[in-house]
Task: structure prediction
Amino acid sequence: MMNEDNGMTELGNSDLYINKANNFYTLSCLLSSLGKKNGLGSISDILPTGGTNTVAVEPGNAYQIFDKETIREFPSGKLALNIAANYYNVYVVSQMKQENTVTGANVKFVLMDVPKNGLPPLNTNIGTLDHLNASQFEITIELPTSDFEFECAFNNLFNVFEVEKKGNKLIVKLIEYSLPQDIVFYIRIKDSYTCVYGRVQ
Result:
């Protein structure tokens, strides 16, 4: 990757480049510095924490690059990545120099898919809460683990809901009906999340 003074190479399909101060810099991404690693293959976990938009380019250091739009912060404060997204693992091999002037860096990188962690596919229809049919007053979302976090992306302004986490299940009950309404949930397992939706009618 050539730095800003020598052609400004961008990494992959991101807007990440090395600026005049020989730092990684990006506007649309979040950078996590993982410190010293033995190489690209030694990056094992996904770590969307402590991110910034600029960080020093250090030979022997590893980094992860996430698109800001794919990251969501949950009520617990934990960050998670959209399961439909991808991210870059990056390893800086060495500096590039010409006449003792740093011109860029030799970099290895790989595009990684965000792990699904057994979450329902993005934009899955979880069902309908039908106020005319007593057997459809409830929707259950079954997950592969009880260690999940959820966030409701709707309010009880029109209808009244009861949302309960029970073991590895998320149970949504319609308590009072007023008007048709879309219901949306963001669900996180580890560092990945999905978004599912349903309908009240």
Observations:
- The chain has two domains: 4-113, 124-200.
- The chain is about 0% helix and 50% strand.
